[in-house]
Specification:
Elements: H1 3-31, E1 35-36, H2 37-44, H3 48-64, E2 70-75, E3 78-83, H4 88-95, H5 105-117, E4 120-121, H6 122-129, H7 134-142, E5 146-151, E6 159-163, H8 165-170, H9 182-196
Antiparallel strand pairs: 1-3, 2-3, 4-6, 5-6
Helix pairs in contact: 5-7
Length: 197
């Protein structure tokens, strides 16, 4: 490819980008569910590499534009539109929902255990907490923060729990790998204990 052909290709690519961005918006809007790069690249008939570059650019644009009410996020390699946090009160007014109820201490403890130990049974959660966790687990399931991910292959076949995509969305994570290491909490706890002494 000579210089003239290369420049012409670059001009065509730049002129197609707004059209591709528009198509991505339409596909994500119509789907309602998260879509993978493969889903989008197949629908748009462009390479995954080109698509990923455009999506990253769109994510930046949505995040930086203060006048937009939505943003484009990635969760476990899938992309979707979500509303910006600053508009949550208006959305709750429209949907006539109460303000988000905060989680109880028991629910937070159970969620933390499940998050770091998943998949895990209720009995194991109870042992770690030292008290029964039935109601806390039920509340977390109702809020779609955890779900049944399988059964342990032992007598009684107890349910194994793990976190959901809604958990990632609520905590602003793309994937579980972004969670802070438990060691960082332990180190912080040791330094706090030393300060108190």
């Amino acid at each position: 490819m000579n210089n003239i052909e290369a420049k012409q290709f670059e001009i065509e690519e730049v002129s197609l980008k707004p059209r591709i961005k528009s198509a991505i918006e339409s596909l994500l809007f119509v789907s309602g569910d998260p879509l993978t790069v493969k889903d989008l690249s197949n629908a748009l008939e462009i390479t995954s590499k080109d698509l990923e570059g455009i999506i990253k650019e769109m994510m930046r644009e949505y995040e930086e534009d203060e006048n937009r009410g939505i943003k484009l996020i990635s969760i476990n390699g899938e992309y979707q539109f979500v509303t910006k946090e600053k508009n949550s009160d208006y959305i709750q007014n429209l949907l006539k929902k109460n303000k988000r109820q905060s989680l109880s201490q028991a629910s937070l403890e159970s969620l933390a255990i499940i998050t770091y130990k998943q998949p895990i049974t209720r009995i194991d959660i109870d042992e770690i907490r030292g008290v029964k966790s039935d109601s806390a687990i039920q509340r977390l399931v109702e809020k779609d923060l955890i779900k049944e991910v399988g059964r342990l292959n032992v007598p009684g076949r107890p349910i194994l729990y793990g976190t959901t995509e809604e958990f990632l969305r609520q905590f602003g994570l793309k994937e579980l790998k972004e969670l802070p290491d438990l060691e960082s909490f332990e180190a912080e706890e040791v330094s706090i204990t030393k300060e108190e002494d």
